[in-house]
Specification:
The complex is a heterodimer of chains A (90) and B (457).
Chain A (H helix, E strand, L loop, with lengths): L5 H8 L15 H9 L5 H10 L4 H12 L3 H18 L1
Helix pairs in contact in A: 1-5, 4-5
Chain B lengths: L11 H10 L11 H21 L4 H7 L16 H10 L9 H69 L3 H18 L8 H27 L2 H4 L3 H19 L13 H12 L1 H17 L2 H22 L4 H7 L3 H11 L37 H12 L3 H23 L1 H36 L1
Helix pairs in contact in B: 1-2, 2-3, 4-5, 5-12, 5-14, 6-9, 6-13, 6-14, 7-9, 7-10, 7-11, 9-10, 9-13, 12-14
Classes of the chains: A mainly alpha (90), B mainly alpha (457).
Chain lengths: 90, 457
């Protein structure tokens, strides 16, 4: 991640707590709504998915694409954000 | 799967019989029930559910029992979580927990893996076809084309030769000489090939033209040349002529040092001078000519060149009928040159820039193909194996030689010393004395001590 967005920095800066799924980098309103429809209403649920996929980049990105139709950049942002958060707080 | 009883609840013997009925290789007799259950789950449950799912897959499931690999042909969604995990593991993917939210991901992954596996096989088959057949066919076609063209050219040249023959009433020998020069010029013109630039091509053409022209000039020179040289056999003349193009070419292409042995001659020098002076004279014509050539197809270009040559030849004939053989000799170089050019660079004419970006296909032979079959080493007999084993344990030969020489030297020294024994004995004695004195001095001390002790006593 050469350049990280503001959203990414904010998410990675602190424990995610009860943040909504839209707080994740790469997840905007549209994707967030889709994720919520699928039951992933909080960021920690997505984190759970990320963890249960053993932090596998490919699998997680695939899952994100299938679940909410994220494009490559959104997948990358979301993955990078969760990865960094885990590196910091897990 | 409501039709199948939970295999874990079945007895071991029942499991065994089930497995046998489904042609599954039984695990060793001592193995635990869990193993049987696993096998049961893997093979029998799969086939059962597949039986109910679709008819198309039936033939596959007959084989499933023998070869668990074929089970991967199944739709991953029909597998149990554990089977899915096992299959993924078989494909080198260490799956995490397969739960409701992750199952879809892993199924997709497995499907991708299966597809990629199948694709690889397909590709290999396609490649094999590409490697083996199509290549040869293409080459064959090209060869056919190339073979057809030279024949056409040869016919044309033969016609031209005939014309000249009729006009000049020359002997058959000369025509044969011409043929000989033809083959030689093949060789000479092949040197042109590595010069890919348009300039070179152009200049070479010009030079070959110059050669033709210079042959007209050299007529005059020839008349000045002493009679002895002018009486040189026709064969030599033809040799000189054929050397002419090579000489001029090497001059222009900045000293490609490869000249034929015949190349250096008076006529060649003349031609060099001519080639240096004449470009301005014939450049206009050649420029237009070459530019036309680039945009024309092979056949039309060829025809035009032949025509041009005919014209030149005609001129030559008109001027001096005697030397028309020389023109004949020099004329062939152009045609085979084009010929080989086309053979080697079939598409070069199409590039107006002169830069050859040949659309040559990548080498489909051994270079690109991955090594699929390592040639076995030549069979080695057990005796050679033994010998190698022994050789491995042996001391290296240079050490053996070294040791041998040291031993020889020592023996020689000993023999020399022994021969004059007088020198040996003192040496030995001195050695003994030396050792004795070392041992003796403390002994003396002791004796002195004892003496003194006894004295005190």
């Amino acid at each position: 991640m050469s350049s990280t967005s503001q959203k990414h920095k904010e998410f990675v800066a602190e424990p995610m707590g009860e943040k909504p799924v839209m707080a994740l980098a790469g997840i905007g309103e549209v994707l967030g709504r889709k994720l919520e429809e699928n039951g992933f209403d909080k960021a920690y649920v997505v984190l759970g998915q990320y963890l249960v996929l053993k932090k596998d980049e490919e699998l997680f990105k695939d899952w994100l694409k299938d679940t909410c139709g994220a494009n490559a950049k959104q997948q990358r942002d979301c993955y990078g954000c969760l990865k960094e958060w885990c590196d910091a707080f897990l | 799967m409501p039709f199948v009883e939970d295999p874990a609840q079945l007895s071991k013997s029942r499991l065994k019989s089930d497995l046998v009925a489904h042609h599954v290789a039984l695990p060793p007799a001592a193995s635990k029930k869990e193993l049987y259950v696993e096998l049961h789950l893997k093979h029998i449950d799969q086939s059962n559910c597949a039986d109910f799912s679709s008819d198309d897959e039936d033939p596959v499931h007959d084989v499933v029992g023998e070869d668990p690999e074929n089970a991967t042909v199944l739709d991953p969604s029909a597998l149990t979580d554990k089977d899915l995990k096992d299959l993924l593991l078989k494909h080198g993917v260490k799956a995490g927990p397969i739960v409701a939210s992750t199952r879809a991901v892993y199924e997709k992954k497995l499907r991708k893996l299966l597809q990629s596996g199948g694709k690889e096989e397909l590709n290999e088959a396609e490649n094999a076809v590409l490697y083996s057949d199509s290549d040869e066919e293409e080459e064959g076609d090209e060869n056919k084309e190339e073979q057809e063209e030279p024949e056409g050219e040869q016919e044309q040249t033969a016609e031209a030769l005939k014309l000249n023959q009729q006009r000049c009433n020359k002997k058959n020998v000369d025509v044969q000489r011409g043929d000989f020069a033809y083959s030689q010029c093949f060789f000479l013109s092949s040197r042109l090939r590595p010069c890919p630039l348009k300039q070179n091509e152009w200049s070479s053409k010009r030079n070959s033209k110059n050669a033709v022209r210079s042959s007209e000039q050299t007529r005059e020179h020839r008349s000045q040349i002493p009679a002895g040289i002018s009486k040189v056999s026709i064969a030599q003349h033809s040799g000189l002529r054929s050397g002419v193009p090579s000489g001029s070419q090497s001059v222009v292409s900045n000293g490609c040092s490869s000249r034929s042995s015949q190349a250096f001659s008076i006529t060649e020098m003349v031609v060099e001078m001519e080639s240096r002076t004449s470009p301005t004279v014939c450049s206009d014509k050649e420029l237009s000519h070459s530019s036309k050539q680039e945009h024309r197809s092979r056949s039309s270009r060829l025809l035009k060149e032949v025509e041009d040559k005919d014209i030149i030849v005609d001129q030559a004939v008109r001027y001096t009928p005697k030397d028309s053989t020389c023109v004949k000799d020099t004329k062939p170089p152009q045609e085979p040159e084009n010929d080989i050019l086309k053979e080697i660079f079939p598409d070069t004419n199409a590039t107006p820039t002169g830069i050859y970006a040949t659309p040559r296909r990548p080498i489909k032979g051994a270079a690109q193909r991955p090594i699929q079959y390592a040639y076995p080493k030549t069979p080695v007999s057990p005796t050679t194996l033994e010998r190698r084993e022994v050789e491995r344990r042996l001391v290296p030969i240079y050490i053996q030689i070294l040791v041998f020489f040291t031993v020889v030297y020592v023996l020689y020294v000993i023999s020399v010393i022994v021969e004059d024994g007088s020198s040996v004995m003192p040496l030995l004695e001195s050695l003994n004395q030396w050792s004795d004195s070392e041992e003796g001095s403390p002994a003396l001390d002791e004796t002195q001590d004892t003496h003194s002790a006894s004295g005190e006593l």
